[in-house]
Input
Amino acid sequence: MLGAVVVAGFTMLGANEAMGQSNPTPQNLPYEQTFEAMGEDGTTLPDGIAGWLVSYNNSKTNAESSVPSADAPVKSTSRTETSGGSIYHHCLSGNSQIYE
Output
């Protein structure tokens, strides 16, 4: 009986680490980021920044109880009209911006 409880406990601990998203490296405070290191076509977020995919179905209640399922991809674009489940890196003339 005790063995089954221990196995169940370790399974639950491992499940927490097995989720699809990654966690960013903690940064010292105060934290400042200009996103210029990404360059014009960068698709890798700087240290300390992460974007995650969550299933929220347009409901605040569902969003608050959702668990991240994966890292959100970063897509390089020159248009801010693009929409969807990603993070968009929009850069014009050295003015790098991140949009969700």
The chain has one domain: 2-99. Residues 2-99 form one domain. Strands lie at 52-53, 70-71, 74-77, 87-92, 95-99.
